[in-house]
Amino acid sequence: MNIVTEPLVYLRGGLMPASQANISIYDFGIVLGATVTDLLRTFNQHAFRLDDHVRRFYDSCKYARITPPISAKETAEITREIVRHNAEAAGHNAELAVVYFITPGENFVYAGSAAASGTKLTPTFCIHTFPMPFHLFRRFFETGLHLVTPSTRHIPPECIDPKIKNRSRLHWWLAEQEAHLVDEGAMPLLLDLQGNLTETSGSNLLLVRDGAVYSPTSRNILMGISRKVVIELCSKLGIPFFERDLQVHDAITADEAFVTTTPYCMAPVTRFNGVTVGDGAIGGPIYNRLLQAWSDEVGVDIRAQVSGNETSGKRITRKT
After folding, report:
1. Under 8 Å CB-to-CB from 24, ≥6 apart: which residues?
2. Cα–Cα distances in Å, from 261 out to 15, 28, 320?
């Protein structure tokens, strides 16, 4: 019997062991930070919302004028193959994050190529995985998140539309350093130039007031797949969902607040700029209903999985 010991990576048109995967220091992803990306995860070692993530990735590529060398259908097929192989390498109960990234290719001028002028770029397209590091997210479910609005503002859609998922993230790095001056465990949530709430570097914000869920307007945020899941669950559960401009006042006076994101799905927000949200509960009634519904849908107790419960890798009985 073959024992799988090393994960596979898709790069330069083929599969290779992760230890052999590398890109040039002259790549435009390094030189300019010109990189389109996406990230999905597995539940019970099967890719979750694969079609949604592939569609968003290809939409982002089109907006960025970077043409992937393979079709969306081929990308989905390769993803399934990599997940099957790498899940076996990671172990029985492991869940994987799957990363897509693409750059315009290598900068021939930086590489010293005499043929730089008029040479057509070859995009660098990579698909790789890593085991989900649930231990990093455990505290979010134990104490809740503290969101802080730093002085760094969200890049306006007139410059870069936030619906394109990219790695041009220096402003997020600066925002995080500033937020950590307030609280080492805080997560930055940026305001737009008009003072409206937008998003964090890796999650969408949702507020709850009077039994309804509110989201910042889609003009200023990434269309998160996890946010989409919550919208669908709200519809199933009869919970009203609205989009509108929201300010800091709305967050501080909300009954509940939480973020949605691929790695840990949903996490409660218990403080906003140092002020307790609602009654300070680590997950209010609406949050708990939605998290339970999500767990039912994927057959995994999400809270237990992130919290490191010994049964976290096991299926739960779906409600009918």
Report:
1. 30, 106, 111
2. 28, 27, 26
Each residue of 71-103: pLDDT tens digit?
A: 999 999 999 999 999 999 988 889 999 999 999
CATH of domain 8-132: 3.30.470.10
Structure tokens, 230: 């919550």
pLDDT digits (tens, 9 = 90+) for 33-68: 999 999 999 999 999 999 999 999 999 999 999 999
Q: What is the pTM of this model?
A: 0.92
CATH number of the domain located at residue range(s) 138-307 in this protein: 3.20.10.10
270: three-class secondary structure by DSSP: strand
CA 72/CA 51 separation, integer angstroms: 9
Gap between the Cα atoms of 308 and 283, Å rounded: 18
Q: Which residues make up the CATH 3.30.470.10 domain(s) of the chain? A: 8-132
